[in-house]
Each structure stands twice: as structure tokens, then as C-alpha cells.
Design brief:
The chain has 3 helices and no strands. The protein is mainly α. The longest helix is centred in the last third of the chain and has 41 residues.
Length: 91
């Protein structure tokens, strides 16, 4: 593994360690808030797979939107920053 690959590996490990607890907290919050609704759904005949799918889809939707918007905004900001720095460096 060259130095560049090692740097990316460390970067992804850092991101995973940083953001995984927030994702887990978000999921736990949604389950706590919806415990009664989950019980009613199960009592009315929903399967465990249905309930888990519902909770996961509704919990991760805001996370996916945030990651997408953050990626787009950071990519455009870095492009703008590189263009600005390129003009000032005489390149």
C-alpha cells in the first residue's frame, strides 16, 4: 500500500469513527419517539421486516440528504477556492 492509499484509508477510518455514533443516535431517537406507533403497527399485523424498513428509511433519509448536500457544497466550495487560489498564485 503506497502512502496515498494509506492516507485515504486513515481518512475513511476517521470519518467512520466520527459519524457512526451520530447515525446510531439518530436511529435511536426515531425509535424512541415512535415506540407506540411501532407497537400499533406490529399489533395490526405488520412484520418485523416492515417495521425495520420503515424506521431505517425514515431515519436515514435526512442523513442521505445531508450527505448529498454537504458533498455538493464542499465540491463547489473547493472548486471556487482552487480557482481563487490559482488566480492569485500566478498560475
Amino acid at each position: 500500500m503506497n502512502d496515498d492509499q494509506g492516507r485515504w484509508t486513515r481518512y475513511w477510518r476517521y470519518l467512520t469513527a466520527t459519524f457512526r455514533p451520530e447515525v446510531e443516535d439518530e436511529l435511536e431517537f426515531h425509535v424512541e419517539q415512535r415506540t407506540r406507533e411501532i407497537g400499533v403497527r406490529l399489533a395490526l399485523g405488520a412484520t418485523t421486516v416492515d417495521v425495520v424498513g420503515l424506521v431505517l428509511s425514515q431515519s436515514f433519509r435526512p442523513v442521505a440528504v445531508g450527505l448529498t448536500l454537504g458533498g455538493v457544497l464542499s465540491a463547489s466550495a473547493s472548486g471556487l477556492l482552487l480557482a481563487t487560489l490559482g488566480r492569485h498564485s500566478g498560475a
